[in-house]
Specification:
Strand content: 15-25%
Distance between the termini: 35 Å
Strand order of the largest sheet: 1-2-8-3
Largest sheet: 4 strands, antiparallel
Radius of gyration: 18 Å
Helix content: 25-40%
Structural class: alpha+beta
Number of strands: 12
Length: 247
């Protein structure tokens, strides 16, 4: 039965996304308890993960890389959320529970640090869509780090896709770390908050988050007024050789 559903889902997804995979919940043993699939969907059995690629031509735009990349990301987020809603409806029509994982917001805040309800990057790696590179991004063998991701957690038991067994970064490549203006890539560690603080901007932030009272409401503000954020940096994405050519 699981194989029949997998084939039906695969046909459905191939018409709508650029890449997809299935990750049984047993693969999420190391996920934080608050962000485990079992906290998201009752009787969770599988996470269906998929991605839509932002065309890599934006990275070579002579004058508007950040403008075009920002719109590409947000267009993909909106599209993936629509795919997720349709997929969840499809699964429920098959008799299974299904819960949509947002492609971006709402985020969950631990202090001042934003987390996804489920880490889509880790889910993508567990579902075989790609592998983590030195920059902390997940790289697909064809699309590099240009995939935006979406997912549905479902009670449907599905065969897992083969995890990625390759190392994406070329030997000796240090382009992302060398290009980072805030030194967020230190050795093998990725300084998430240094990167986000420099890269993700919004015109409302300095007004709404400028005092202690605003910071108390950071989750609500960023998940509503700050949803359509601005990109102020794309250096690691732009210089990465995996984003400029097909493997």
């Amino acid at each position: 039965m699981g194989g029949d559903l997998e084939r039906k889902l695969s046909r459905w997804l191939r018409k709508r996304v650029d890449a997809f995979g299935f990750a049984p919940v047993e693969r999420f043993a190391d996920a934080p308890e608050e962000h485990h699939p079992a906290r998201i969907c009752r009787d969770a059995a599988t996470v269906v993960v998929y991605g839509s690629a932002v065309p890599r031509g934006v990275l070579s735009s002579p004058g508007y890389v950040l403008h075009l990349l920002q719109r590409g990301y947000h267009s993909a987020y909106a599209y993936l959320d629509q795919v997720s809603m349709l997929l969840a409806t499809f699964l429920e029509a098959e008799g299974h529970r299904a819960v949509v994982i947002p492609s971006y917001a709402p985020l969950v805040f631990h202090g001042l640090e934003p987390w996804g309800i489920l880490s889509l990057k880790h889910a993508a790696a567990l579902a075989g869509l790609g592998a983590f590179g030195r920059s902390g991004l997940v790289f697909h063998p064809r699309f590099g780090a240009m995939l935006r991701l979406g997912a549905v957690v479902t009670s449907a038991p599905l065969p897992g896709s083969a995890p990625a067994d390759w190392t994406p970064c070329p030997r000796g490549c240090n382009a992302c770390a060398a290009s980072c203006p805030v030194d967020a890539l230190q050795g093998t560690s990725f300084q998430k908050m240094a990167c986000l603080g420099h890269t993700v901007k919004h015109g409302i932030y300095h007004l709404a988050l400028g005092d202690a009272e605003g910071l108390k409401r950071i989750e609500m503000i960023i998940n509503t007024a700050g949803y359509n954020y601005w990109l102020a940096c794309d250096e690691c994405v732009k210089v990465c050789p995996l984003n400029r050519r097909k493997r």
